[in-house]
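Please, structure for the following, as tokens.
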Amino acid sequence: MNKNVFKTPMEIQHPMIYWIKKNLFSTPLNSLLTIFTFYLLYKLVIDGIVPLAHLDWHVIPANLKLILVGSYPAAQLPQVWVIVCYFFFFISATFSCRYEKLPVPLILIMIFFLGMSLIPFSVTNRIFCLVCFALCLAGFYGTKLVPASLRLKILAVAWLLFIPLAFILVSGFGSHHVKSNYWGGLLLSMLVSLTTIVVSFPVGLLLALGRRSKLPLIKGVSTFLIEVVRGVPLITILFIGYLIIPLALPPSLSPSVLARAIIGIILFHSAYMAENFRGGLQGIPKTQYEAAEALGFNSFHTMVLIILPQVLKRMIPVLVSEFTGILKDTSLVSIIGLLDLIGISTSISSNPKYMTCSTQVLSFLALIYFVLCYSISGASYKLEKKLNTNVHGGVGR
């Protein structure tokens, strides 16, 4: 059938004008909204973006090491690079389970490393950029030679070991040991964020299950923890961890400032995660429990095999929102003296040489946060699409 049968003469002869009229100026109200939106975009470009292009950006390359790893000793940077190589090798291997050809995100990562290798950094850093580029190729194509079932097991173990290995390697060994007060910048922000995301997920789930428990003691403790922690700002929890824990413990047992900050952030987000899980659990119909009981499942198998898969599928958008919140909340650790990305920006701006460059530094940090949060959102969108959570009969937002 000819598709033009149902089109108007204007739609056939001037499709662009037809589209503009239909989508932007279809009614007087839409016309006003379109004009107002274009005015806002014009002001944003003229007053916001154009002035940024005329600023002196030399502060970024001059302080790039501070922004990425803080005061971490340059001689021990290969320890950090090993973690970066490990991460991107297994990211590529994970992509190989899903795609036959190199996917666009992986191509962009490889272009990034290739571009970084051309920038006049130190020879060691440029070599590691090329190694990361090669590992992305090796991880994608090399792991396809491994049988699929074995590949999945290797990837599961590799990702489970990633966080502990990252802390061990960044800490170093013997004479190469680096104290946590030298960690900073993007390295510190990523370690705190990833640890919080990985640990607060199971802790939040346990708290949610504890709150639904029929045992009064477990239910009472879980409810008390959730309500108390949710009723206190994160800043207060960080200060409690920073000031009170050293007073309550002997000096030999007192954890480092970084450990106290991570514990506080994990506790805070576990409470919120628990409430998210509770909402997901309440959305499961009682018939699901009755069907599992009729099949002879015990409570553990009912929860693991029947209930949790449905809950997790429903909670993907909420979990993504929580993960991006965790990523941004790590910036608060700067108030207890940890030099994460925000702390580093303050440190750079306090340097008399760069006192007028705070706009450039903050804009660059905003770009880093945007890329990280957008990557999380993009991955979650693809996961939602794969799990088909928005179709009829599925679970919509």
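The CA atoms of residues 210 and 218 lie 6 Å apart. The first helix runs from residue 9 to 13.
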